[in-house]
Structures are given as structure tokens and as C-alpha cells.
Amino acid sequence: MNDDVVEFLTGNSEFERDLYNAAMRNLEDKQNKLRFNNFAYAMRELARHVLKRLAPDDEVLKCVWYKNEIPDKDNGITRVQRAVYATQGGLSNHFVQQHLGLNPKTEHRALQSAIDKLSKYTHIEPHTFDLTAEKVDSLVTETLDALEGLAVAIVECRGLITGRLYAAIHDGTIEQVVCDSLPAVDCLATHFSLEQVHVYHTGIRTITHDTIHLFARGHISVTLQWGSNSDLRNGDGAEIDQDFDFICELTCPVDDPSPDALEFEEDSVQVDTSSWYSGPDEGDDLAPEPGHISEG
Q1: C-alpha triplet 56, 59, 60: angle, nearest 5°
Q2: Is the pLDDT of residue 129 over 60?
Q3: Percent of the chain whose predicted confidence (pLDDT) is above 70
Q4: CA–CA separation, 108 vs 62, rounded Å?
Q5: What is the pTM of this model?
Q6: Domain check: are 151 and 7 in the same one?
Q7: Is the pLDDT of residue 289 over 80?
Q8: Residue 115 CB: number of other CB atoms within 10 A?
Q9: How far is residue 83's CA from residue 112's CA, in Å, rounded to a whole number?
């Protein structure tokens, strides 16, 4: 897997990144007849941790599509169901398939199959010991492709939703910024005027069992003014044109993921004015979070 996919799947978890690296290092010891068995054990556990984090029990159980597929266990959750939640949260299968045109069943089943195979190689038997280099390469490729397939399905689902809502997010964000008092900017000068609002990125943070949490990033162009208009005419005031990045947060219910259902979170418009105080290269408060893959 490439570094972006690894970072996306492991998120902010240093433990999960370290576990991935440790699993891969097992493969480098080609003199060790247990190298794939050790890889299989570590990678199976990594998949368990990643799926548990991406799909918490209490969230999966609340989804409209959930049903117990483990008869001998109350509130049983399969790996495939965790993969489904990681991909679409509480969105209905009907919406994902019919309105987004996405059917990630193949990716989810491939992940289940890969993990099942890994489990087989954690039990040391004559037929699972000292595998040939060709067999190791084949199994490793299958495992990593399955994990990457999950990441691709997650990103694709979020990208399709964002694309479906993009116009409403874009127009609504501009309106929200224009109507906001922008206190972070207001405190910089006697007066300011908002000249332009540009939205350059929209995306989804999370999809829970009932809510899609979205964000919009952009920048504003403002004119900062010190002194009154009379002061300016008399040469006693000053004006400076300045650009600042901003971010705002939105939500949408999973049972109505439509433009009309979008809502802006109260006081969510945040303008990053750190460059005003620290220089243009040091203000990065609104930098993308680790583990984020851009979708639009």
C-alpha cells in the first residue's frame, strides 16, 4: 500500500502505524520460515483494530441496515458489517446503491476473505509453515489489495456524497461567511470590509449512524481599515488588503442526504488569522488532519 492509504486507514493512531510497519518488517526476514505467519498474525490484528476504530459497536448497532448475522451472539457484528459502516455509516444500502451508484460488496467480501486467510496462517501446521516466496508474495498482495480496496470504497462513497451536495455547500458557505460577524478579523482593525469569499475544498469528516458531518474550506479577501473614512481622506488612516483561510462545519441527516437538509453548525465559521501575527508561512491551524484523503 502506498503511504497515503496507510495514513488514511491508520488515522491518528501511532500504534496502528507502528503495527503496520512491524508487520511489513516480518517479510524482510527471508531466512525466517515463519515470516509470513508472523506477518499474518500482525496484519490480522491491525485489521481488527482499524475496523473497530472505524466502526464502533454502538454506532454499527444503531444503523438502519444492521441485523444480527451471528445467531449465537447477542448484538453480533461481522467484519463485513464493520466494513460497511466504515464505508457508508448509517446511510441505507438503497441510497448508496441507487442514488450514489456505488456497490462496494466486492471490496467488503474481499477484505473478509483476506482476513480469514490470515487467520489460517496464524495456526502453525506443516502446510502453513515455510511458504514459498511465490505463495508469500501472492498472499501479501491479496491482503494489501483488500485493505486498500476498503480505503478506496470509503473515499469513493464520501466523494459521491460531497459531489451530490457540492453546489448547496458552496453557495451556503458563501452566504454563511457573508452573514457572519467574523470576530477573528474584526479585532484586527478599526473596520474591515469583506471583498471576496472563495470556497476551494469540501469534504466529509465522518458519517455516523444518523448524521453526515461535512466541512468547507476556503479563503476570504478583506480590506482592513484603521481610522475613520475622514481619517483616510486626511491621510491619518490606513488600509491593507489581506487574505485569510477559513473553515466551517455542516451536518446532514443520513435519512435525507439532500441539499435542502444541510445545516451549518452554530458559530462554526473559523477564520485563521495566525499569519497576521506570525507570518504567512507559519499559520497552519486549518491544515488537513492526518489520515485525510481529499475527495473533492
Answers
A1: 85
A2: yes
A3: 94
A4: 20
A5: 0.86
A6: yes
A7: no
A8: 21
A9: 9
Does residue 82 sit in the same domain as residue 197? no
- Grid cell 516480518 is found at 26
Q: How confident is the model over 190-221, as pLDDT tens digits?
A: 999 999 999 999 999 999 999 999 999 999 99
The answer as to whether 120 is a domain residue is yes
Angstrom distance (rounded) from CA 51 to CA 10: 10
Phi, psi of 66 (to 5 degrees): -75, 135
Instruction: Note down the domain range covering 214.
Output: 166-278
296 in any annotated domain = no
Would you say residue 292 lies in a domain? no
> Is residue 130 domain-shared with residue 151, that is, in the same domain?
yes
Tens digit of pLDDT for each residue in 151-169? 999 999 999 999 999 999 9
Give the chain's radius of gyration (CA, Å). 25
Can you read off the three cell numbers belonging to residue 272? 485563521
- State how far the Cα of 16 lies from the Cα of 230, in Å rounded to an integer: 61
* Residue indicated by cell numbers 485563521: 272
Q: Is residue 295 part of a domain?
A: no
Average pLDDT of the chain to the nearest whole number: 91
Give the Cα separation of 87 and 96 in Å (integer): 10
State whether 195 and 156 are in the same domain.
Answer: no
